[in-house]
Amino acid sequence: DFIGVAEQSGLIVELGRWVLQQAARDGRRWQVHYPSVPAMNISVNLSGRQLESPELIKEVVDAVDAAGLD
Predict the structure, then answer these.
(1) How far apart, in whole angstroms, are the C-alpha atoms of residue 11 and residue 8?
(2) One digit per residue, pLDDT tens: the chain, 70 residues?
(3) Which of 10, 12, 37, 59 has the most CB atoms lying inside 10 A of its own CB?
(4) Count of domains in the chain?
(5) Is residue 64 within 8 Å of residue 24, measured between CB atoms?
(6) For the residues of 5-43, what is the DSSP string, one character each?
(7) Residue 58, domain extent
C-alpha cells in the first residue's frame, strides 16, 4: 500500500505538499484554458500527519499563491 508506506516512512507530508502544489497548478491551468467556466472547487485528501502539521495552512496558502490562483 503506497500511502501506508509513505505514512510509515514519514514521507507523507512531503508527498501531500506536492499534491497540494500540483492541484493548485492544475486549477490555475484550468482557469487559463477555460475562462468562461465559473470558478470551481478543488479538493485534496489530507493525511492525519498533514493535519497535525503546524505548517499546513502556510503550505496551502503558498501553493495557491505560487500557482497564481484567484
Answers:
(1) 8
(2) 888 899 999 899 999 999 999 999 999 999 999 999 998 899 999 999 999 999 999 999 999 999 999 7
(3) 12
(4) 1
(5) yes
(6) HHHHHTTHHHHHHHHHHHHHHHHHHHHHH-TTSPP----
(7) 2-67
